[in-house]
Design brief:
121 residues; two-stranded antiparallel sheet
Length: 121
């Protein structure tokens, strides 16, 4: 059984929990007890190795929550990710739309991408 990891999410006004930095079709919902699968053509569901790394990231943004998840499948790391959260920009980053230049940023420390996670809380 894989070790618990930590996911930073956004909680809307009705209490629903979503991806903090992905919009449109890339935004995933994270209800407690659910199994969440990443879109096929993406890097995966981003999580942090440690709670401390998640807290360091969370402290840079307002109103984000940290939840525990159990990864399923093989994790992968990358050096750069798309720095924009809009669906249009993410489509360009993943090569779905043959559009413009994509702005990238360094991946936050401790980030791993998994194809599937189980939401523990």
């Amino acid at each position: 059984m894989k070790k618990v990891k930590f996911k930073v999410i956004s909680v809307n006004h009705s209490g629903r929990r979503f991806s903090a930095f992905a919009e449109g079709n890339y935004s995933l919902e994270f209800p407690k007890g659910s199994i969440v699968r990443a879109r096929e053509e993406t890097l995966g569901v981003s999580v942090f190795k440690t709670r401390k790394q998640a807290e360091l990231f969370q402290n840079r943004y307002f109103l984000l929550k940290i939840i525990r998840v159990r990864p399923i499948g093989r994790g992968k790391t990358v050096r750069l990710i798309c720095s924009d959260t809009r669906e249009f920009d993410l489509d360009a980053y993943y090569g779905i739309s043959g559009s413009m230049i994509v702005r990238t940023a360094l991946v936050p420390l401790g980030t791993i991408f998994y194809p599937v996670v189980e939401v523990l809380d």
